[in-house]
Every structure is written in structure tokens, then in C-alpha cells.
Amino acid sequence: MNSPTVTLNNGVEMPLLGLGVYAPQHNNEVQQAVEDALALGCRLIDTAAGYGNEREVARAIAASGLSRNELFITTKVKNEDQGYESTRRAFDRSLALLQLDTVDLYLIHWPTSPHRLDTWRALESLYAERRIRAIGVSNYYQSHLHELLAIATITPAVNQVEFSPYCYRPDVLTFCREKGIQLEGYAPLVRGMKQNDPKLMAIAEKYGKSSYQVLVRWSLQHNVVTIPKSVKKERIQSNFDVLDFELATDDFETMNTWYDNTRIADDPSDLA
């Protein structure tokens, strides 16, 4: 797999397709999943302190034999670690667990902490120290971004949100594009909840692809960085086997109308 890339607002190139490793019931399988993904050509790995598997990601990176500059590694500060000094300490812990000198992207995981603006200042300081190649946020909608942009000296490079046809928020995508923020989508497969949706199955059959592959392709066609999660090698390979077809405009636009607020995570709209 040779994933296309996007160029972030600071000039850093980021793969458009990668592997998410949120797997609380399967952390013992995460190392093998990351090893499998890297062997298949994946170069973007998305983890987080809150996932408890940064050490497993490190072991997989070491086992891969790949050079550091071939990889794009994302991690996130968890909510209870937010605040200026505590975020800097949390970042040091993540680096130690990942056995890296830098991470490619560091995100505020949720806009739930009263210390989130201090957390952003910590990210800006770490970025200025060249310990992070790009900084961003996760689960931020417009109100959270307005608050952040009012004090930020650096515009977030990335905003990672839940992104599928069933929780497609074009207003969030448009806002981020207008601000030069790259959208990244997690849970594109909706944890399998929609794999048997007749509308989705009909489109999948038309292209000779699986429901999951159509969901990943739809996300990529929005030019949204996409990180499907799996710990099974055959599923990982299938999720990456989406670069050889394109959804026709009518099918793509039809999928844009499927919003029903099906989510696997909290709705950021509910977070003040």
C-alpha cells in the first residue's frame, strides 16, 4: 500500500490512510496488528495515552525494521493530564513509552478539561522545541475551535473527529478547511454497526467491494485522513485495499445524505 499524503498547514506531509489502535479489549493484540499494518505498507499509526498501548506500538515499530522518517506516529494527551505542566509531563511519558525522540502529531484528545487552553499552550511550547512535528486537537467542533483560535499563536494542523456517512457534519469539515485545519476521521467503520445497511450493501455490491471498503473510500474522497481500526490482519489488509477504485459522484453524494447521528463516541456538540 502506498498511501497518498496530505500536506498540513505547516508543510508536514501526513499519510491519508493509516491504522487506529483504540482497542481496549485487545491491547495484547495491538503489537501484532501494528506489525501487520507496517508490513502491508501502512505508515500512519494513531495511538493515545488513554489507549494504554503506546508501549505495544513501540515494540511493533522496533520489530518492523523501518527507519523513523518512514513513519508518522500520532498520540494524544488524555483528559486527566491536561494543564500546562501536566501536559508537558504527559508528553514525556508518551515519548518514553513510544521510545521516540519526537512524535509526528500530538493532539488534545477531548475538549472536556477546564485546562484545555493551558494544554494548547503546552503543545505550542513543545512544538517550538521541535519535539513535535505538528500539533492539533481531537473531537473539537466549531465552538471549541473558536475558543482555541482566539488564544492560539499556532493554528491546529489537524482536528480528529468521528467521521462516517452516519455522523457526517459538513459544517465541521467546511469550517476546518476554511481555517486551514486538516480533518482526520476515526471510526469510519462505525464499529460494524452499519455493515448490513441495505443502502450501503447495494453500493458495495456495485463496486465489488465490502461495506467496510466503501466506508473507507467515502472518507478518503472527502480528503479526510482516515484511520480504520482492526487487530485482524486480513481485515487490516482489506481496509487498506481501497486505492484501486473511486465512488462515482452520484454514489458519493448519496452517501453524504445518510446522517442519522450514529456514533461510537460522545457527541462533541454536548461538550461545553
Note the topology.
Blueprint: E1 5-7, E2 13-15, E3 19-20, H1 27-39, E4 44-46, H2 54-64, E5 72-77, H3 84-98, E6 105-108, H4 116-128, E7 135-138, H5 142-151, E8 158-162, H6 170-179, E9 182-186, H7 198-207, H8 211-221, E10 225-226, H9 233-240, H10 249-255
Parallel strand pairs: 3-4, 4-5, 5-6, 6-7, 7-8, 8-9, 9-10
Antiparallel strand pairs: 1-2
Helix pairs in contact: 1-2, 3-4, 7-8
Features:
single chain; 272 residues; alpha/beta; TIM Barrel; eight-stranded parallel sheet; two-stranded antiparallel ribbon; 10 helices; 14% strand; globular
In brief:
With 272 residues, the chain is of the alpha/beta class. The protein is built from ten helices and ten strands. The protein has a domain of 179 residues: NADP-dependent oxidoreductase domain (TIM Barrel).
The low-confidence runs, each spanning 5 or more residues with pLDDT under 50, are none
Decide which structural class fits the backbone: alpha/beta
Largest sheet: 8 strands, parallel
- Estimated share of beta-strand residues: 5-15%
Strand tally is: 10
Instruction: Indicate the overall shape.
Output: globular
Question: CATH fold name of the domain at 9-187, please?
Answer: TIM Barrel
Distance between the termini: 40 Å
The spatial strand order of the largest sheet comes to: 3-4-5-6-7-8-9-10
* Helix-strand sequence: EEEHEHEHEHEHEHEHHEHH
Helix content: 25-40%
CATH superfamily of the domain at 9-187: NADP-dependent oxidoreductase domain
Arithmetic mean pLDDT: 96
Supply the CATH class of the domain at 9-187. Answer: Alpha Beta
Radius of gyration: 18 Å
Please count the helical segments: 10
